[in-house]
From TrEMBL:
This is Glycosyl transferase. InterPro entries: Glyco_trans_2-like, Glycosyltransferase_2, Nucleotide-diphossugar_trans. It is a multi-pass membrane protein. Residues 7-169 form the Glycosyltransferase 2-like domain. Pfam families: Glycos_transf_2. One of its GO terms (molecular function) is transferase activity. It comes from Silvimonas amylolytica. CDD domains: DPM1_like_bac.
Length: 320
């Protein structure tokens, strides 16, 4: 009987400075695996530097390594999804390309998987080398998300995790476009456990998550896992209407029972601008959900692959 297969999925975007070291570390790690076969699945997410050429070389030289090269940059979560589609493993590990997540931790993940857990997610106890801004926004984001989301999503947990085949198949059967993978895994259920680990500094290069991508990612997380913003906008609208009602009662009472009337532009302008603002915000929230519905109904493929390397026939992974 053959050994179970472990797939390690690595999304890469403009990582030429780290990719050589990453593949060395991962290969060294895999070589030390006993009674497990392995494959390394790299996804080149439309890098504009030498990443793709480097990955190609690595994949051609080693039958354990596969490369899926996207036609353009589709984003981290989509790259991870493509890796899950292509991985054949009985267990699949997601890991970043920048060595912030130490490969050695996978040993403990595998041990817990063998104990019967379907998901082992790494929880960051320490994050050296990240800006105070990133740390505090990340902290706030995970807590807010957890408050809003309908399924509990573990705090301070990234995509570094091991998943059993069962869980991967559930994720692959979820057709949604806005893919917030860590939330989708929570949604799937099964036996999940956390594994605390200290996150290292990026090996080289800089973060591929500029503020704009971070905001997009956070919005995706919240809007894909909660409809509370919609309820919130109803609440804000009701509050504004209640305030206006109080204003009316006040104005009428003054008019009927005193000689001083409410007058002036200021109050009027404030009321109009306030209501206008509230309305626009609520319409904006609606629009965000609408836009998501729109992109769902277009039913475009999630990603476009330019090239598969390391698969028999070069035509990509056979359906598993
Ligand atoms: N990444 C990707 N596509 C993107 C942005 C990032 O595949 O559009 C990959 C990147 O190469 C890395 C992982 O996602 O392997 C996490 O990115 P990064 O380390 O820059 O994020 P941070 O750790 O700073 O949050
Ligand atoms: Mg990183």
């Amino acid at each position: 009987m053959s050994n179970p297969l472990l797939s390690i999925v690595v999304p890469c975007y403009n990582e030429e400075e780290v990719i050589g070291e990453t593949s060395r570390r991962l290969k060294a790690f895999c070589a030390g695996l006993t009674d497990l076969d392995y494959e390394l699945v790299f996804i080149d997410d439309g890098s504009r530097d030498g990443t793709r050429a480097l990955l190609k070389e690595i994949a051609m030289a080693d039958p354990h390594v596969r490369l899926i090269a996207f036609a353009r940059n589709f984003g981290h979560q989509i790259a991870v999804s493509a890796g899950l589609d292509a991985a054949h493993g009985d267990a699949v590990v997601l890991i970043d390309a920048d060595l912030q997540d130490p490969p050695e931790v996978i040993h403990q993940m595998v041990a817990l998987w063998r104990e019967g857990y379907d998901v082992v997610y790494g929880t960051r106890t320490d994050r050296p080398g990240e800006s105070a801004f990133k740390l505090s926004t990340a902290r706030t984001f995970y807590r807010l998300l957890n408050k809003l989301s309908d399924v509990p999503i573990p705090l301070d947990t990234g995509d570094f995790r091991l998943m059993s085949r069962k869980v991967v198949d559930v994720l692959r059967a979820m057709p949604e476009r806005d893919r917030f993978v860590r939330g989708m895994v929570s949604w799937a259920g099964f036996r999940q456990t956390s594994l605390p680990y200290a996150r290292a500094e990026r090996f080289a290069g800089e973060s591929k998550y500029p503020l704009k991508k971070m905001i997009r990612f956070a919005t995706d997380g919240i809007l894909s896992f909660s409809s509370k913003p919609l309820q919130l906008s109803i609440g804000v609208g009701m509050t504004a209407a209640a305030l206006a009602l109080l204003g009316i009662v006040y104005a009428v009472a003054l008019r009927l029972f005193t000689n001083i009337w409410v007058e002036g532009w200021t109050a009027l302008m404030i009321a109009v601008l306030f209501l206008g603002g509230v309305q626009l915000v609520c319409v904006g929230i609606l629009g965000e959900y609408m836009g998501r519905v729109y992109s769902e109904v277009k039913r475009r493929p999630l990603y476009v692959v330019d090239e598969y390397i390391g698969y028999a026939g070069g035509s990509g992974p056979a359906a598993s």
